[in-house]
Amino acid sequence: MSQEPLRVAAALVVGADNRIFFQKRSAQRKLFPNSWDVVGGHLEPGETVAEALAREIHEETGWHLAEVLATVGDYRYTGEDGFERWETDFLVRVDGDLARPQLEVGKHTEFRWLADDELDVLDESAHINDGMIRQLAEDGFAVLHGLGT
C-alpha cells in the first residue's frame, strides 16, 4: 500500500520592490542541505494549508502573513529521504521588518532578496534540488508579472 504524499505549504515572500525572498538551508539539514529555498514546511496534523503557510512564515522569519497574492502552483517531488511530497506554493506579502528576518537558528544561514534577473545565484544548489528552486522562482515571477504588480 502506497503512502499519501506529505503536504507542504510554501511562500514566495514578495517585498515592496517586487523582489522575492530566499533563504539558505544550513549544511546540517537532512533534506536539501546548504541549498537555497523559499519559506515553508510540512503541515502539522489537523492543520490546513493556509494555517501551515502562516505558521511557517512566522517560524522561519518572524514575519506575519498579510496577504496571499496568488497561487504559484503545486509541485510533487521525492526527497532524499524517499518520501513523496506535495507542495503548494503561494506569492505572499508579509508584515514585519523585511530587512531583518529572524532566521531559524540552526536551520537557515543567510537570506537574499532577488529580482527576476538575479536568479543565477539559485543555480549554486541546483545539483542538490535538481533546479527545483530556480524553476519555482521563475514560476513565481511569471505569476507576479501576470498580476501587474
Question: What order do the helices and strands come in, and which of them pair?
Answer:
Blueprint: E1 6-13, E2 20-25, E3 36-37, E4 39-42, H1 49-61, E5 64-78, E6 84-95, E7 108-114, H2 126-129, H3 132-146
Structure, described:
- The protein is of the alpha+beta class and 149 residues long.
- It has one domain (6-146): Nucleoside Triphosphate Pyrophosphohydrolase (Alpha-Beta Complex).
- It is built from 3 helices and 7 strands; from the N terminus they run ββββαβββαα.
- The chain has helices at 49-61, 126-129, 132-146, and strands spanning 6-13, 20-25, 36-37, 39-42, 64-78, 84-95, 108-114.
- A 4-stranded mixed β-sheet has the order 4-1-6-5, with helices on both faces. Strands 3-2-7 form a 3-stranded antiparallel β-sheet.
- It is globular.
- The protein starts with 5 loop residues before the first strand and ends with a helix.
